[in-house]
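Got a spare moment? Tell me how you read both lines of this record:
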Amino acid sequence: MKKKLWMTFGPLLIAGAVFLFILFGPSSLFGGVSNSTVKKSATSMSPTVVQGVAIQQKMLTTDKTYLPIFGSSELSRVDPFHPNVFAEKYKRGYTPFLIGRPGTQSLSHYLDIKAMGNELKGKKVVFVLSPQWFQPAGVDDGHFGGNFSPLQAYKFAMADEPPTPERRYAAKRLLSYKVVQNNTTLTTLLENIASPGPRTSVSMLTRLAAEAEMKVLQRKDDLESKLIKDSRQDKVDKQQKDLPNTLNYTDLDSLATEYGESRVGDNPFFISDSYYKKKIEPTINQLKNSRTNLSYDESPEYDDLQLVMDAFKSVGADVLFINPPVNGAWYDYIGASREKLQLYYDKSAEQVNKQGFHYYDMSQYSDTPYFLEDTIHLSWRGWVAIDKEIDDFMKDKTKPSYHKTPKQYYMKKVLPSKKEADK
């Protein structure tokens, strides 16, 4: 009978023991993230890198100087003038580490920055904004859910920090998304942070469930960090061959102009010919004056951006914010208002500048050819301008002096609503 019971349940017990060992055993037994993995990850922009913690922590603590660059889809456009190609070709002493994917916006980056914690202290960081982030509704459910990191969210929710207006607002924003609402344990933790008045104690059962889930996510991150896919390092190595051996920004801009000219056809928007024929030309007539109501001057993204700025302030990171241009000719064609667009640039510039961050406004290049490869994505001459700005920023040894968060952020948004107050 004992033998039969063992034959039946023994394999299950062994499998359970192995699972528990993998889950709760010392991380050192599985090996840490290697330096070669970090190098591959620098251009990967894969979910493992962007939504994880292990590789980013290693990147910040390795002896090599990595420069975190936060952004979205524009970072994936690797041509000879891309910051990773530029920095490696001209041995600038730093390697850009790309953090972002299509659809990543300030709220996702906020969780990532909080997960990095004090490892960012004193580090140089670049943050590339995108005007299209600042839609009236902010980041939508689809894009936020596609880039959401449960591990980073749990690290935020379980951090032993006071319920500041920033923290309460962040929790309230996270709770507005379905991907968070579908996780009962995480929702309970965030509701406790977001709720007005004194904090209530989270039940022991909820805390145990949260700790177990975070442990599973951490170990998953540890294991997935061993194999990185989609590294663009080969492309970075190949593209260096197109650059002159001696760095001269005037010559580099001229070369980028030639490079752009050779890739743009006869369309009036200076859009790469392949993109134009595939994405624009088939519906060009329907697109004329199709976005007359386009506006970026009112959006929850401004508050989400403030979360990012306050997260950087709290750890003492030295940050350069870059605001790219738009394709002016294209904006005119779709009927978008230049005046409304300028309101966005003015508002975001004031928000960043007044709080003591480095800031590079590229809006003056909206009508300059070959700064963008399509309607919104940086390329060619745009990268050259950014390469120089980043290089100057990396040489600047001045320590940042940040200012307090303006009163218009968070406070009104974290006060209880009438419905909440009546409960």
Remarks:
- The first helix runs from residue 2 to 24.
